[in-house]
Design a protein that fits this description.
six-stranded antiparallel beta sheet; 19% strand; globular; 6 strands; 6 helices; 224 residues
Length: 224
C-alpha cells in the first residue's frame, strides 16, 4: 500500500471518528483492485445523507475507457434519503457487518471490499471478494454503482474541457448505466450535468441525455 493511500485513508478515518463521536452513523466501503482505475477508493456515507468519495489511482496505465483521467479525486457528496435509508437498514439488519461475509467460494476476483459501520449503536466491519449473503452482496454492488456515477462525472468534466466530441460515448454509457442499475444516485453529479446542459458547445444529444438524468435525479428515480 502506497504512502499516499495510507495518508488518505488516515484522513478519512479521522473524519469517521469525529462523526461517530457526534452521534452520526457512518457506513463506508473501501475497495481495492490493482487491475482497475482507480485501484483504491473509499466511499463514505453518513446517516444525514452527506458523504465523501476519495480515490487513489494506481500507477498502472489505464485501459482505453479510463485513460482520460488518472488522478486522485476527493469529492463531497449528498445522497438521496431513500438510498441512505436502505444502506443503513441493511447495515443494521446484517449486525453492523459483525460477521464473516466472505463466501470463500471459488469465484473470479472482483475486488477486495471492506464494509464498515460506525455509530452510537456500535461498530463493525467485514471483508470480502464475493459474499453469499445476498444483502451484503447487493449493498456492495449498489455502493460500487454510486462510485461508477462519480467516476462518469469526473470523466465528463475532463472531456468537456478537452474533447467535447468524446462526451457522446461517455454520456451514453452513463445514461445506460442509470437505466440498468450499474450507475446509481446520478444526483451526486448534478452540478456537472447542469453545466453540460447549459454548454451550447456540447452536442445536443449529449445535453438531452444530461437533461433526462437531471429529471431522474430530481424525481428520485435516478438509478435508485
Amino acid at each position: 500500500m502506497s504512502l499516499g493511500w495510507r495518508v488518505g485513508l488516515a484522513a478519512v478515518c479521522v473524519v469517521l471518528f469525529a462523526r461517530s463521536v457526534c452521534g452520526q452513523a457512518t457506513v463506508t466501503l473501501e475497495f481495492t483492485n490493482e487491475n482497475l482505475q482507480p485501484s483504491h477508493w473509499v466511499l463514505t456515507i453518513h446517516s444525514d445523507g452527506s458523504g465523501q468519495y476519495d480515490s487513489f489511482p494506481s500507477e498502472a496505465v489505464g485501459t482505453e475507457s479510463n485513460r482520460v483521467r488518472e488522478v486522485a479525486v476527493h469529492r463531497p457528496l449528498h445522497l438521496s434519503q431513500r438510498f441512505v435509508e436502505r444502506v443503513f437498514a441493511t447495515a443494521r439488519q446484517r449486525r453492523l457487518f459483525n460477521f464473516q461475509c466472505e463466501s470463500r467460494l471459488k469465484v473470479a476476483f472482483q475486488g477486495e471490499k471492506r464494509l464498515s459501520y460506525s455509530g452510537p449503536d456500535g461498530s463493525g466491519s467485514c471483508e470480502y471478494n464475493y459474499s453469499k449473503d445476498s444483502q451484503i452482496q447487493a449493498l456492495g454492488e449498489s455502493l460500487i454503482a454510486v462510485e461508477s456515477t462519480i467516476e462518469f462525472g469526473e470523466r465528463l468534466e475532463v472531456l468537456e474541457q478537452h474533447d467535447r466530441l468524446g462526451m457522446d460515448r461517455e454520456m451514453s454509457a452513463l445514461y445506460e448505466g442509470s437505466q440498468n442499475g450499474s450507475a446509481l444516485e446520478v444526483g451526486v453529479i448534478q452540478e456537472t450535468l447542469e453545466r453540460i446542459v447549459s454548454d451550447e458547445q456540447v452536442l445536443e444529444r449529449v445535453r438531452r441525455k444530461a437533461r433526462l438524468l437531471l429529471v431522474e435525479a430530481h424525481s428520485g428515480t435516478g438509478g435508485n
